[in-house]
Amino acid sequence: MEVLLKPEICTIQEVIQETPDVKTFRLKFKDDSIMDKFTWNPGQFVEFSIIGSGECTFCIASSSTRKGTFDCSIKKAGLITADIHNLLDVGSEIGIRGPYGNWFPFEEIKGQNLLYIGGGIGLAPLRSLIQYTLDNRKDYKDITILYGARTSADMVYKKEIEEWKKMEDVNVILTIDKQEDLWFDNVGVVPKILEEKVHPDLSCTKVITCGPPIMIKYTLMSLDKMGFAPKDVITTLEMRMQCGLGKCGRCNIGSTYVCKDGPVFTYEQMKKLPDEF
Amino acid sequence: MNYSKQIQDIAVRLFTENKIDVFVGYRKNVGDDNQTPFIFKNPALCDKLVFTEKSTHNLTNYLTNETTKSKKVGLVVKGCDSRSLNLLLTEGQVKRDNLYIIGVSCDGCVDEKNEKEARCIACVMQSPVIYNEMLGIEKEKKTYTIDADLLKLKHMSLTERADFFTEMFSNCIRCNACRQSCPLCYCDKCVIDQDSSLYHNGANTTSNAGMALMTWYLHLAGRCVDCRNCERACPQNLPLHLLHKQNEMVIYENFQNHQAGMYEKDRGAFYKYNLSDPDDFIM
Amino acid sequence: MAETKVKEQNTVASVENPELPVDPNWEPVIVGILCNWCSYAGSDLTGTSRIQYPPNIRIIRVPCTSRIDPVMIVKALQTTGDGVLVSGCHPGDCHYITGNYFSRRRFLVVKQMLWTMGYHENRVQFSWVSAAEGAKFAQVVTKVCNDVKALGPLHRFKKEDIK
Amino acid sequence: MAFSIFHISNDELHKLYEDIIKNNETYAPVEHSGDYKFKKVNSLKECNTDAPIKTTASVKPLFFPQTSAIMHYSEDAKGIKIDDPKEDVLTHKKVILGVKHCDARGMQVLDSVAKWDWQDEDWIKRRENTVIFSTLCVTPENTCFCTSLDYDVKTTDAYDVLVVNDGQKKLLKVCTEKGEQFLEPYTGVLTKLNGEGDAKLKAEFTKFKNAFHLKMDYKEVNAKLQGAFENDGWDFESARCVSCSACAFVCPTCHCFKISDEKVRDKGVRYKSYDSCNQKYFTLMAGGHNPRTQKYRRWRQRGMHKFVYYKERFGVNLCVGCGRCTVKCPVNISIFEVVNNVANNI
After folding, report:
1. Taking CA atoms, which of B208, D97, D124, D151 is between 20 and 30 Å from B62?
2. Residue B215: is it exposed, middle or buried by C-beta count within 10 angstroms (0-12/13-18/19+)?
3. CB burial readout D81-107, b (16+ within 10 A) else e
């Protein structure tokens, strides 16, 4: 067990301040041979170890199709994330082990319309799949990205969103909770905009959603109302994890280990879990 | 000492008069003669209540957790328990109006081997100091005596003492039963728990266990009422009371015979000061 | 072989534990927790007055001695410190009027408790040093440093490997 | 495959134990201020192979120590350096004497979590290199209920050799190939029993089973608990819990752990140590969301994990019925009582 828990050293290549409390770290393994072997699927996560502070779980926010480095977007929320924000800069070294967990079913959803619904920092795990699907654009039909944040300042990946907007085959819908000056897009919470602006073809659309628990709750209700089958809705579950290997028991919900059987679940699978949330 | 019948009657009365939502008392353990805390909302269960010399737990521990929070509580206290209740009241953790306190003038509790507990032999306050209703005869406050185990410890040499405590800390499994059972440890987030905090670490090494216990001792100095919930709870049977008694002794001898929780509105020893406090040890 | 012998001859017995020899060249680490308004200013004065004092002290500045949770003292001993010096304003001079009266009580209890646990009484020392007492600060630090030197390195309850 | 059953007198057994201790790295219960703990022994005098279960710590720390170092590291201007791992003494070949059969079963139960998906190499190595001598308890305590669960003492292979009292003599029941091989050099002092061995053992097992105070119908309880997620019995039963982790730390099958760092100046250690689902912070996430803030939710997780979820996932019951949690609980909560009361509270 101790061997499995030992991290490899990564160097931070770039730090991007996305919002006041979200930073994206571009990472690369110190040892190139490990970097070459390191592959992951969209939706998987890694364990960050900050030497002296501890470990923390983050999903990889970039696609394995863009090799060489990988991104993690981190919101300042707890003790360790505060350390990450305060102590780390370009050139700092951290430990990484992973990738762990399951992934978005990018093979199964081939040839389907994709509807991404993200809220706040929840765009990070989606970004990995968005990048993947954009890099394999011909395998997928229409791509719609619905992204909401509290304010325009809280939006992550602003540059990349602009790029997506410019793409002709991607439909990007942005929304913020309250009207601001110089904001010309939609205003309103995600479920409301979803019902108003998105008119998907129910027969061949997969929904991939991630965001804060309260947004997920109402979005799932809206999706139900719109007539989506639970098996077509894919989401990620948030649960505290520590080992990522299905051993430490922290992420146990019912007989499911979120770190191993998840974090990606369809709404159908989620309904079967004991109602702990 | 058997007040089972009286307490059952009072509990039934309180429930029927709608004075309480929850009752916290003792019931007999299934399987052996010992007793266990019993918390219930259903008046029909009142007949399970007992109170004998086996009722050793300090029930005020339950006043600060979610089971009884912001509810009207009926509660059984002995002399020592009422002292911790006093402290909880002054520290603003419970509201007096929410409590109906049944004080029992106690003759001392017995342990599993049916011998009188050491703490009860040295007990200074057998009758409750705060109550709505008292069972038994009010007893006088007794004089303070230094704990016999502590005296023994004091006669050891410095290295012997250090060895004693190293041994004690190395036997600790850090289950936090002592802290969780302590009625005066009510913090929502304990400084011992915070992983990767500046002070503490979850790993169980001798020094970490020592650090956690020392923190606990120091945060309880001047507040510990010697109910020994901690020592009874300890799965490793560590002599946890020693350093509490040590602090109690220093405080009693130096700060105008202060004993925690003896009066209503009494604060812990560290919440007040006196101009004539000893400072000859300070350069 | 010859070298170790020389070393042995040069060592002196620790006051705390006579069986443990102490290398006289060993330099202790003293953690100094000083109150901002008196002792820290006092230590400044020591410096500006060019009074020599041992460099072994590592100073932590706190607003008032009553801000010191005794746990900090224990923590200093558990990690890197071989001794701790806590210093504040003289009674009655506290910037916050009564802070040091409260801390005085705690100091007594923590000192006695650590002694009972097997720490030598000289490991943890307290002093009142006002902003004008630069010379006293140097004296105090020298005394604490010499005391701890005589005790030898602190091994007890230090962070160590697993049980 | 049928394994041998031997007869041996008490004196001979002691001699056998002495021999085993002499030739192998041996662990056995050693007394320490009233409590027994499994420690390395050099002679039979130091230990008590018949230590009572109430005061004997479980054998779990020999396979899964309470705290173990994942790595030692140091940090300097050049970067982080992770030191090579130190030798793991627990993976040495060893023999454990006087293991309670419920403990041995507990280790077997934990195999499934160690071996699913990611292989816990250390655990597997420790298990493979250990020969377990188990002793059948003479009289069960009033907190034990091992015979009521989903395994049969008669047929289980959780231990390599089982020692059973038979009047003035002892029966040695070999349960695995490993045990058979281990006992091979010692067969000189053992009398092999053929047909009559089984009968004798059966009589002893029946006697043992009948001596229990606590009995339950496991299948029924398990079935009822599966629908007991919303049962308000959890709330009632857990009301007196003080949320410590004594039960989890003494439990032979609780296997949750946490990872924590400890760094002084530029050197540090990362530890893996026990953790318990009874603690409030166990599932606390950054940002403050916690799915199990209330005591009954945590107790439900504990009870259901022991009696339902693990069975659902790995096909074995997690609780082995040793009753240690009941003995060590500050407020005498018995998991037996709790699951039975919840199951019957519909």
Report:
1. B208
2. buried
3. ebeeeeeeebbeebbbbbbbbbbbbbb
Q: Is the pLDDT of residue C11 over 70?
A: no
Secondary structure class of D230 (helix, strand, coil): coil
In this structure, are residues B34 and B114 in contact, taking their beta carbons and an 8 Å threshold?
Answer: no
Provide the ipTM.
0.88
> Chains meeting D at 3+ CB pairs closer than 8 A?
A, B, C
Q: Is the peptide bond before A99 cis (omega within 30 degrees of 0)?
A: yes
Q: Residue C91: pLDDT above 80?
A: yes
Tell me if B152 sits within 8 A of B122, measured CB to CB: no
Integer Cα distance of C112 and B255 in angstroms: 14
Alpha-carbon separation of residue B225 from B187, D135, D243 (angstroms) = 18, 44, 21
Q: Are B58 and B74 spatial neighbours (Cβ–Cβ below 8 Å)?
A: no
Query: What residues contact residue A107 under an 8 Å CB cut-off, 6+ apart?
Result: none
Contact check, Cβ <8 Å, C112/B217 = no
Ranges of residues in chain B whose predicted pLDDT is under 70:
194-198
| The amino acid at C106 | R
Strand pairing report for A233-236 and A143-149: unpaired
Residue of B nearest to C157 (CA): B207
* C162 interfacial to chain D (CB closer than 8 Å): yes
* Cβ atoms D306, D235 nearer than 8 A: no
Structure tokens at D149: 């669960």
Sheet of D161-166, strand order = D35-41, D26-32, D94-100, D130-135, D161-166, D169-174, D5-9, D191-193
Give the span between the Cα atoms of C7 and A184, in whole angstroms. 80
Task: Tell me how far apart the alpha carbons of residues C36 and C96 are, in angstroms, rounded to a whole number.
Answer: 11
Tally of CA atoms within 13 A in the half-sphere of B281 that contains its CB: 21
Residues of chain C neighbouring B199 (CB-CB closer than 8 A): 71, 75
Q: How far is the alpha carbon of B202 from chain A, nearest alpha carbon, in Å?
A: 11
Instruction: Measure Cα distances from D204 to C9, D100, D163, D170, D208 in Å.
Output: 68, 16, 11, 11, 6
In which band, very low, low, confident or very high, does the pLDDT at C1 lie, cut at 50, 70 and 90? very low
Mean of per-residue pLDDT scores for chain D: 87
Asked if chain A contacts chain C via 3 or more Cβ pairs within 8 Å, the reply is no
Residue in this structure with the two tokens 């305590």, named with its chain if needed: D141
The DSSP secondary structure of B146-188, one letter per residue, reads --HHHHHHHTS-HHHHHHHHHHHHHH-----HHHHH-TT---S
**Cβ–Cβ contacts within 10 Å for residue D271, how many?**
25
Q: At what angle do helices B241-254 and C99-116 cross, to 10 degrees?
A: 130
Locate the chain D residue with the closest alpha carbon to B185: D242
* pTM for the structure as a whole: 0.90
* The residue to which tokens 């060590």 are assigned: D328
Residues 59-88 of A with CB under 8 A from D: 75, 77-81
Chain pair B-D, CB pairs under 8 angstroms = 109
Helices (H), chain D: 10-23, 101-115, 121-128, 177-183, 195-210, 218-226, 233-238, 246-250, 295-304, 310-314, 324-328, 335-344
Could you give the CA distance from residue D46 to residue D18 in angstroms, rounded to a whole number?
A: 11
Residue of B nearest to D144 (CA): B31
Tell me the CB-side half-sphere exposure of residue B252, using CA atoms within 13 A. Answer: 18
- Residues D250, B236: Cα–Cα separation, whole Å: 10
List of chain D residues with pLDDT < 50: none
CA nearest A56 in B: which residue? B196
User: B202 and D260 in contact by Cβ < 8 A?
Assistant: yes
Give A-chain residues touching D310 at CB under 8 angstroms. Answer: 255
- pLDDT value at position D28? 92
Amino acid, single-letter form, for residue D188 = G
Beta strands A186-187 and A170-176, pairing class = parallel
